[in-house]
Design brief:
Blueprint (H helix, E strand, L loop, with lengths): L1 E3 L4 E3 L9 E10 L7 E7 L11 E2 L11 E9 L2 E9 L9 E7 L9 E9 L5 E6 L8 E10 L2 E11 L2 H8 L6 H8 L3 H32 L3 H12 L67 H18 L1 H8 L8 E6 L14 E7 L2 E9 L8 H14 L3 E6 L23 E6 H15 L4 H15 L15 H9 L8 H25 L3 E6 L6 H15 L1 E8 L6 E6 L4 E9 L6 H11 L8 E6 L7 E3 H4 L14 E11 L11 H15 L18 E3 L1
Parallel strand pairs: 1-10, 15-16, 16-17
Antiparallel strand pairs: 2-12, 3-7, 3-9, 4-5, 4-8, 6-7, 8-11, 9-10, 11-12, 13-14, 14-15, 18-19, 18-25, 19-20, 20-21, 21-24, 22-23, 22-24
Helix pairs in contact: 2-3, 3-4, 5-6, 5-9, 6-8, 8-9, 8-11, 11-12, 11-15
Length: 711
């Protein structure tokens, strides 16, 4: 992979033959596990300004009408979060000279609080071809990672690495975007009028002090005799002090013919077109009695075999993807699909040697006369993917120039552990990506759009509702991960009679099933809440997923316990889940830090008031400095005497641990008495009765010896 340093540039064509469409990934990690940022893209003309406000892409304007820019959204990575942006450079208008890739933070946070900042460039086949690693970004709330620019008819990429202390609103304004004053004020946490005055003052001062320098830099770039000289001049102009509010390469605001400032157009709407969501509470039915069942668009009554279920599920899913653009893009964008007209096909016959192959489905997306194609292989119930089938589809896709093969089943893919091993021919120039979806993830995305984010019209919302009803029906076979595997019972028996030995491969199988279960629990809870819910792991265990699972398997053999932690956006701490296979009990718990101000007794009383709706058997433990633990008791007792939570003497309270215990299911499946159902119910109950009522967290730095990352 090509390593780019700050201020350096490189021709994209020298990195790969497939750079017409690329994906830029911005990565960061946080020592608290709560750090986040929002990416943004600006298309600039020769004057260093946007042509219109529509050239500014951010969370409220994520997709270009022509598909040239598409913000793909955040996803967990090995060391934190990754935000991805798709560019079709062949569709970028000819009057766009530069493309700026930036990110911003909010609520007073700055990039110096984030770790492992980097930009990664992937070519059209999904291979990482370039990386730009950034050191200390400083106390700035907006940051320019890099920029694409044209030179001699080719695209180049420059590593900028420059901070902006004016935030997203200041960065956008300096590039010519008209910001809604109210929205800008909310973004920066100040009054709208004050912020507008500050921006105007900063712009006027910068224009007066740097107009001559900007003009000279622009003229020098235009008349440069060589590409190298032009790059050097531009890089020198762009990379400056983090405290200056305007880039040196940006010209001052344009004047009208009479010398006055041109009148600004009306502010751009702050949000996109109003979306349609469905209420959580269903309307009162007109049925005469409960035995009457409403007619469904996708019935499940005729499903009698696994083949029927696979065929019906594939057709239902593909038809909704094609008819509801938001849903189709949500499922295909992470695989590199462009934003364009989508058509889907079922049971397509494709030649393969002497015997044609029939993949379960084909997805085709057209944009600017180009086609993106993926083959789909579907499994329902507990049926596993077959390696020979997937291998054949990979070979067909490579020969026909398709971009991806997508597998879809109830299984959940694990990081660094593919569900199906396939061989790729390294001699082929065209590379095919192999991706996996679980039915639980499909249902999660449908629920996010249907209940929280919305779709364009009521008909689309109704289609998603019918799809979700179908997926959740017991006869559809699309229930997600439902079986802890063949090793579950032997491992439990081995723990009970103390015969489970260190290094037993069955323990590793149980750990892998446990990780799949936790990932699915996160999807279901996140779909209900409309928030990010992600598994978390301690980075002190190492970043290699395989080694981490081996350590957890050894821990299972020693302690007889399965451990997991979940991060829920907007909550004060991690939600931990511990399954004790020796005692048959599940423990869900969270730790909250002690307030920084006030008196301990006030903290205790406030916590008890917050937990007014929590179960009486909730265990509350006071965490103290330099000791194993402080006072503890049930909420039922502490409601009468909150002072019992306080330690004796001058011992400093560092926080509180809240825990709920329940019996866990013994079966390996997801029936009412099964282990999977009991874990899912325990996490949902603990969140609803305890975590949801706690105070929202305040940003605070913690030691980096044991960083928490999501993945």
């Amino acid at each position: 992979m090509y390593e780019l340093t700050k201020g350096a540039n490189v021709r994209l064509a020298s990195l790969s033959e497939n750079v017409g469409s690329v994906i830029v990934s911005l990565d960061w990690a946080s020592s608290t596990g709560e750090g986040d940022a929002d990416v943004s893209v600006l298309l600039l003309d020769l004057n260093g300004k946007v042509r219109s406000d529509g050239d500014f892409y951010f969370y409220n304007n994520p997709v270009a009408a022509d598909g040239s820019v598409q913000l793909l959204g955040k996803a967990p990575s090995g060391n934190g979060n990754r935000d991805r942006i798709s560019f079709d450079l062949t569709a970028i208008s000819g009057d766009v000279d530069r493309i700026v890739v930036a990110a911003s933070r909010y609520d007073g946070a700055h990039f110096g609080e984030l770790d492992d900042l980097q930009l990664t460039l992937s070519d059209g086949s999904g291979d990482d071809v370039l990386r730009f690693v950034i050191g200390d970004a400083g106390e700035v709330s907006a940051f320019i990672f890099g920029e694409f620019y044209r030179r001699g008819g080719e695209w180049k990429l420059r590593a900028v690495g420059q901070g902006y202390d004016a935030g997203l609103a200041g960065l956008a304004t300096d590039f010519g975007v008209d910001i809604d004053d109210d929205a800008a004020a909310e973004e920066e946490g100040v009054a709208a009028e004050d912020m507008a005055a500050e921006n105007a003052t900063a712009e006027d001062a910068a224009a007066e002090n740097t107009a001559a320098e900007n003009t000279a830099a622009e003229d020098a770039r235009d008349i440069a005799a060589s590409d190298a000289e032009a790059d050097a001049l531009t890089a020198a102009a762009v990379v400056g002090s983090v405290s200056q509010p305007v880039l040196a390469a940006v010209p001052p605001p344009r004047q009208s013919a009479d010398g006055t400032e041109p009148k600004k157009p009306a502010p751009r709407p702050r949000t996109a077109k109003k979306k349609v969501t469905l209420p959580k509470a269903a309307k009162k039915t007109l049925a005469e009695n409960e035995s009457w069942k409403g007619a469904r668009l996708f019935p499940v009554t005729a499903l009698k075999s696994d083949r029927d279920r696979e065929t019906r599920a594939t057709s239902v899913l593909l038809s909704v993807m094609a008819q509801v653009p938001e849903f189709g893009r949500r499922l295909t964008a992470p695989f590199g699909a462009p934003a364009g007209r989508m058509e889907t096909f079922a049971e397509v016959s494709l030649p393969h040697g002497d015997t044609p192959r029939r993949p379960d489905g084909v997805i085709r997306v057209e944009r600017a006369g180009k086609l993106w194609t993926a083959l789909l292989e579907t499994k329902t119930n507990g049926n596993a993917l077959k390696a020979d089938q997937v291998q054949a589809y990979m070979d067909i896709a490579a020969r026909r120039g398709y971009e991806a093969v997508i597998t879809l089943s109830n299984d959940v893919a694990l990081e660094g552990s593919p569900l199906v091993d396939v061989k790729t021919d390294g001699r082929r120039k065209h590379k095919v990506a192999l991706r996996h979806l679980s039915w639980a993830e499909v249902a999660h995305q449908a629920q996010m759009l249907l209940r929280h984010e919305g779709v364009s019209n009521m008909a689309h919302a109704w289609l998603l509702q019918e799809l979700l009803h179908y997926l959740q029906h017991e006869s559809s076979g699309c229930h997600g991960f439902q079986n802890m595997g063949a090793a579950w019972v032997p491992v439990r028996n081995g723990i009970d009679d103390e015969t489970l030995c260190h290094g037993d491969p069955r323990a590793l199988e149980v750990v892998e099933s446990w990780e799949r279960l936790i990932r699915q629990v996160c999807l279901r809870l996140g779909g209900e809440l409309g928030q990010k819910v992600l598994p978390a792991q301690r980075s002190q265990r190492g970043t290699d997923p395989g080694a981490r699972r081996v350590d957890l398997a050894d821990q299972l053999c020693r302690e007889g316990k399965l451990h997991a932690e979940v991060r829920i956006e907007g909550t004060p701490g991690l939600l931990a889940v511990v399954a004790d296979l020796r005692t048959g009990r599940l423990r869900t718990c969270t730790e909250i830090p002690a307030p920084t101000q006030g008196y301990p007794l006030t903290w205790a009383k406030r916590l008890v008031r917050r937990l007014a709706e929590a179960p009486a058997d909730l265990h509350v433990e006071t965490l103290v400095d330099g000791a194993e633990g402080g006072p503890r008791g049930t909420l039922e007792r502490l409601r009468r005497e909150p002072g019992d939570m306080l330690p004796k003497g001058d011992t400093r309270i560092t926080g509180f641990r809240l825990s709920l215990f329940k019996s866990m299911g013994s079966g390996r499946g997801s029936a009412e008495s099964g282990f999977i159902r009991s874990v899912d119910d325990a996490v949902h109950r603990f969140y609803a009765t305890v975590v949801a009522h706690l105070d929202h967290p305040t940003p605070r730095r913690t030691p980096s010896a044991e960083r928490v990352t999501t993945g």
